[in-house]
Each structure stands twice: as C-alpha cells, then as structure tokens.
Amino acid sequence: MLPGSIQITGEALSAAEIKDICESLKENSVRLLSVRGCQLSDRDFGRVCRGVAESHSLAQLNLNLGVVSTIGRTKQLADALTANRSIQTLFLHGSPLLDTGLVTLNGALSTHPSLVSLDLGDCMLGDEAVRLICGMLPPDGAKSGLKELTLSANPAISSQGWARLAIAVAHSSQLRVLNLDYNPLGDQIAGMLAVAVASSRTLEVLDLEGTGLTNQSAQVFLDMVENYPTSLRVLVLAENDISPELQQQISDLLSEGEEEEDKDGEARGSSVTPRDKAAWVPHSNSSSAQMVLMSSGLGESYLAETEM
C-alpha 202: how far from its chain's center? Predict the structure, then answer.
C-alpha cells in the first residue's frame, strides 16, 4: 500500500488521535503529516517525535503555527530529525524558535540526508540563525543542501544578516526557491539580492512581496533581467511601492527568457519537456502581480504539496 497523508488543522488532538498518528508513522504508512496549529500536550508531542524518528516513509512534516512552542519541544524535534532519514520538507512557520531554537535544530537540519525544503517563516529569527542557515546552502554540489527556503516575516534580521544570506545565495549550488516576503528589506538590501540572483546558477523563484521596495530596486531588477543571463523565472513584487508598468516589464522579460529556453531545447532535439506552470497563488489581485507570478518555469515545488 502506498503511504498516505494525515492532515489536521487547529484542533486539540485527543489521545486516540495521537495513538493513530504514532502507529501510522511506525508502520511507514504516512508520507505527509500535518498538524498545523494543533494543540497537544508535551507528552504527546514527544510521542509524535519518537514516531517521526522511526518512520522511513515520512517525506513532509508540517508543524506550522506554534506546535513547536518551547525549547523543550525544539530539542525533542531535533532528536527526531537526527534519527529520521526520509523527511524532505519541514514546515515550522509561525514557531517562536528565536536564534536559540535554530542553534538547537542546526545539527539535525544541516546534516539531514534528505531535507531539501525548509520553512522558517515568522520564527522570530535573527542574524545568528541566518549564519546557520547559510551553512545549509553549500556552494559545492558534492554536499546536499536546501532547494527551497522560506524566511518570511523575520524582521529581527539586520542588513548584515541579509548581506550574509545574499552571498550564500549567490554561490549556492542547489537553491531554486527563496521566499523573503514581509520582511522590511528596502531598496538597499534588494540591490544586494539582485546581485545574488544575477550570480546564481540555480535560483528560479524569488518572493519579495511586501518588503518595502520602490521603483528604485525594481529598476535594478529590470536592468538585470534585461541585460544579463539569469535562471530566474519568477519575481514576486506585489504589495510594494512599484509601478505596474515596471512589474509588467519584468514579467515580460522573464516570460521571454523562458520561451527562448524552451525553443533552444526543441532545436537541440532535447527530450526534456517544457516545464509545467507552478501553482503559485498571488496575494494581490493586481494584474501586474499576477503576470510576474505566472512567468514561473518551476515544475515541481516541494513547498506546494501541503497547505501552509
């Protein structure tokens, strides 16, 4: 039997439900476990972590919205991740980790053999956490690293932290998706990120929604996509003080780049089929924001498989 999924949101989990979850994990019958926003006792959280540690089938674990609420739970999760070898995607969005929590998790995250997608949005992280995250973006393809990273809504990260991340992104050999939405970045940090994008050989999606940008940084991105080769296929600029015309120009150039890539593949007789359009849903209803999103050439998204 193929592994299935358990998805529960915002409920107080009963002892019977915890027992069923743990048994399913131990029987390797679960590929996706999501208990986002659920309430469970420390004892039951420990039981779930032990089940995660023993599971060989679990590929996605969603603990969003405060499930990992204490340093004690963070340590239990770290132990579970150290033993587990199968998880590819981990959601911790909305967990009050702080830098100390990420220090606790770092050993397990950075050495996990399968982890490729990590959501640390709204986790109250700072510069020390960013330093550790950069270690998960290795420049050498011989070492496994993250393909998708979410750091949305972590306003305590300073310009120095973002600069460190930009350098890591520029040299990462595997990162494809970077979500930085709802951080107070501003034009200066966006300029650093533009340099990182121009240098990256792999980054296809950059989400800068609601990051305090203006036409100044949008013009930098426009110059980049217009004049330099880039792997970028999606640039999300919604909820910024950027003109619809500039957003549309960037969108059109990204779309043209994808079309030319597909034509080149056909001309070479490549067996690779055109990439499927990713199901990215814009937060804004503006047509320009949708056009930027719809330029995606990303086929498979690890983060897209489970509800945020």
Answer: 14
- Write out the two tokens for 248: 């549309």
Q: Measured between alpha carbons, how far apart are the two ends of the chain, in Å?
A: 27
d(CA 88, CA 115): 4
Starting from the edge strand earliest in sequence, which strands make up the sheet with 234-236, in order?
4-7, 30-34, 60-62, 89-91, 117-119, 148-150, 177-179, 205-207, 234-236
pLDDT digits over 281-291, tens only? 333 333 333 33
pLDDT 10s digits, 135-146: 999 997 767 899
Lookup: tokens for 185: 């970045």
d(CA 197, CA 209): 16
Q: How far apart are CA 304 and CA 58, in angstroms?
A: 16
Distance CA 191, CA 305 (A): 31
Please state the φ and ψ torsions of residue 100, each to the nearest 5 degrees: -65, -35
Q: What are the residues facing 33 on neighbouring strands?
A: 6, 61
